[in-house]
Amino acid sequence: MSDLRKPLIEKWLGPSRVTAWPGIADREHRAFGWVGMIAIVLLAGSVLLYPQSVARADEGLGSPNQHGQRKLSLRSLPEPPAELKQLIGKGDITFLIGGTRPSVVDPSRSTGTRGRTFDAETQFRLSYTFKSRCRWAWNGSPNDRELAIGVGYDRLRLNVSHLMWFEDMPDREAFWESPLVLHEFDHVRLSTDPRVTSRFLSAVRKQDRVILTREESEPLITAASRRSGRSRYGRSSVLRSLTGGDAQPWLKEIVSAEFQKAVDLIGIRYRELDRQTDHGKFAVPRSGDLHQWLNP
């Protein structure tokens, strides 16, 4: 082999192998030289294909937000199985890819382990709405100066939405079969469990009569008397002057307390799911509380 060809081949593939048999070394150089030529052709081909690969990777992804996260459109994925499709609707899920992990952006909403790196994360957001019908009454005699509120809760609702974040985009064609994706959907199952909503609604509606202490009643009685234009505590005039707005602080306190119990319950179940499965590394046990929570 000429001295001009040998350095070129070694530049592509490293030093060539030289054997002790005469005539063989030159053939081996030629073989490596041919492989080197193939490598150059493939490299050129990869340059041509690279923009198409990027386009495929970016398919269905929106522009990065301020945290570098990109919203994933489900239209770029295969049709989800019926069960997951139902959870997507019930859970009002927003899928995010890349950027900063949501619990780092907002640590107050994290249910995970601080300082640990994860490939995915699901956050839930609960909210409630309600309207009320109130009827003021005396708790006992008007002379006791204690008020009571008879209340009916209309349009009482517990609403839930989710952020499902992945550090890297899972394989598109097998997205709905990915163990990582399925683990995150187990989190959604916990926070969309209809039994959590039923418990919240039942606990609130049971509190249909609110008894105010004398200390709580006095300011309301005084304000109602002033509105009615009378200085004495007439039974009917005070009650007629009290409004639904006067009752709101007590009603909001009741609903907020039960709402916080629902938030805490879901947070506990999220952590228990991650504890028992080590964040999706292991299967959910076939029995026990966690199994029951995931199978309403």
Characterise the protein shown here.
The protein is an alpha+beta fold. It has two domains: 54 residues; 225 residues, no CATH class. It is built from ten helices and five strands. Strands 1, 2, 3, 4 and 5 form a five-stranded mixed beta sheet that branches. Strand 3 and strand 4 form a beta hairpin. Helix 1 packs across helix 2, helix 5 packs antiparallel against helix 9 and helix 7 packs across helix 8. The longest helix is centred in the N-terminal third of the chain and has 35 residues. The N terminus is likely disordered.
Quick overview:
Keywords: Membrane, Transmembrane, Transmembrane helix. The chain crosses the membrane at residues 31-50. The protein has 296 residues and is α+β, with helices and mostly antiparallel strands.
